[in-house]
Each structure stands twice: as C-alpha cells, then as structure tokens.
Amino acid sequence: MRAGANTRVHVVSDVHGNTEALARAGDGADALICLGDLVLFLDYADHSRGIFPDLFGVENADRIVALRTARRFDEARAFGRELWRGMDRNAAITEAVRRQYAEMFAALPSPTYATYGNVDIPALWPEYAAPGTTVLDGERVEIGGRVFGFVGGGLRTPMRTPYEIDDEEYAAKIEAVGEVDVLCTHIPPEVPELVYDTVARRFERGSRALLDAIRRTRPRYSLFGHVHQPLARRMRIGATECVNVGHFASTGRPWALEW
Known about the structure:
Blueprint: E1 8-12, H1 19-22, E2 31-34, H2 51-56, H3 58-69, H4 73-84, H5 89-107, E3 112-114, H6 125-128, E4 133-135, E5 139-143, E6 146-151, E7 154-155, E8 164-165, H7 167-177, E9 182-185, H8 192-195, E10 196-197, E11 202-203, H9 208-217, E12 221-224, E13 234-237, E14 240-244, H10 248-251, E15 255-258
Parallel strand pairs: 1-2, 2-3, 3-4, 6-9, 7-8, 9-12, 12-14
Antiparallel strand pairs: 1-15, 5-6, 10-11, 13-14
Helix pairs in contact: 3-4, 7-9
C-alpha cells in the first residue's frame, strides 16, 4: 500500500483461486476492494484446476462443463449426483473451500474491503478474514472521503451456486445501502450488454433492483464482476459509469480507481 495526497483503490472480482496475483493486487494502492468469487470449483478454461477435478478427475470435469455449456442443467445435475453417490458432498466441498480460503485470505493486503460472490460460502469468511479485511454486505464504508456501498452474492439460477438469494432479499440489501458515491456488487445491473458472456454464449443474471438504484441514486461508479467475458466492459447509465472490473483469475490485474 502507499501514502499520498490522492486516494487510489484497486478493485478485483472473480479471483477463483489466483492467490499468487491476489497477493500483489494491492501494490501501489491505498486499499484493495474484492467483489467476491474467491473459490475455484471448476475452471472452465482449464478443466484440470479446481475442487471438482481434484475430486473426480479431468474427464468427468470435461463432461460436466460440456453439459452445462449446452445448458443441459438437469443432465449435469444427474451426472453430478452419480459422482457424489456414497460421498458426503458438503463435507468434501467445505474442506476444499477451507484450504482455498486459508491461502487467499492470508494473501489479502491491509486494508481490504470485500463482499461475497455467488460461489462463495459466507459462513466461513469470519474464520479467515484478518483484522485488516472488512467484510461488507448491504453496508457502507468511507474510503478517502468517498462513500462505498457493498452488496454481495448472486440471484437464483439453474446452476444453484452456494450464495444465490431471492430477488427480494437482494433488492433489500440494495435499498439498505442507499445513496453512495461508488456502488460495489458482485453481479452487474440487468443490462443486456453487461450480462451477456461472449464465450459462454449466454446471459448471466443481473439485477433489476441494482439497475433501478443506479438510475435513482446516480452513484459516480457502479463496479462489479461475475460475467467473465462481457459484451461490454463498461458503459454509462445516466450519470453513472458502470464498470466490469475484469476476470481477475485470468488477467491477474486489478482495476484502478483514483481521485
């Protein structure tokens, strides 16, 4: 971290196990903001990486990716159930996630302000977050004289990832944050250009409540991740600059905001 007249924050999202780059993400900044998805369950670009191939091998990872990419979610779930048969699924995943969290939270610089992604397990975060890491969800914090609001998690999808919540619960968290200078979320506002993934060739879920809040409260910035290869990485909605801060797992580079 650095000291100076101006304030500079680095923002990352979708870390997915990239601990090495995460340890450098705060270099040259006054604070790091992490918008979630620390866990790597399955790397769609490299099927040998993640909890799933560690447990079941690359061939089974190839199969599950093919089914999900084809949006054959019922078949993917049935295939997964067969693989997990006779195993304690929750125990195996929790143990693997704990190992990943131990490494990644230890790599976070101080100060870090973080919220959850849809593949994260919020109940485990208090065990690993050091004193220099502030976890926020439906809450606000001041950084360098600007007010930042944080809303974590994702909305319900056929993928059934660990931290998906109902639209009403998500909207309540957006409402609790209120007017801020910078609105930080894991998922984007519900705008086609921001939610369409050009590689997966599908629309991810964005939030209508977030879009409405941007139009109503007019923050300077709306920062998010979740969509790894979006059709548009940034666009303006009224007075607000909306920015997908990037797929940190693949780029290893934070997005910088300075004022």
